[in-house]
Request: fold
Amino acid sequence: MRECGSRRSRVWGYVQFLRFVPEAAQRAPLLLVLPEPLRPLLAFMPELKPLLSSGRITLEGEAELSCSLLSLPDFLGVTKIDPSPYFDLETETECGRIGVFRAGSAHYRFDARRSLSPDMLAPLLEVAGLTFVNLQQGDQLQGMEQGVGKTLIETAVAMARCEVVIGVDSMLAHLAGAMGKEFWLLDREGGDWRWQGPDWYAQTRIFRPQGLLPPVEAWPPVIARVAQALREVSGRDRS
Reply:
């Protein structure tokens, strides 16, 4: 049995690389090690559910060999990424709902360039005809519905209801992509290898600062471009 997962991997890695687990389980029985808050997500992976119920994949026990989830593409000989969604929250999308999250972990070394302050979102909230949903843990922002639940699944369901999700490079970004949401990434200057290609998710649009500017100067023009794109969403023909 091969243990696929690493307690030292970042949470984004689990969400991004879970797509490879069903194929790996076809080759050998797996012990899948995941952080406890992420385990409920497995119930919403259609390809994974039968493998869990049959015992081909287990979540507890001992393993003979181990590898990180991030090493699975190499072990499997993956040469092309399939950007198709692999989470299905079984929730209908509601037109005009826009999910927003603005920050990741403050411990990330590039967080000062990645995360936005709440006031930077103001131009987005001024776009008429849309309902904004807060997906940022700890935020209580005027003009936004609260979408953060007590569990990750509750937050994921709130995200699944959104027509468009806007956010920074964090675990929630990968969750939106893995659900097949139309996701607009507010990507820091320089970005991360995950968003440099190939396309990991089918409906990702990337907004990046132009030029090497401090965050307080870099982000307002980006948010202005996103606000203009939202005006187009607001006037979109959904008939």
The chain has nine helices and ten strands. Residues 215-234 form the longest helix (20 residues).
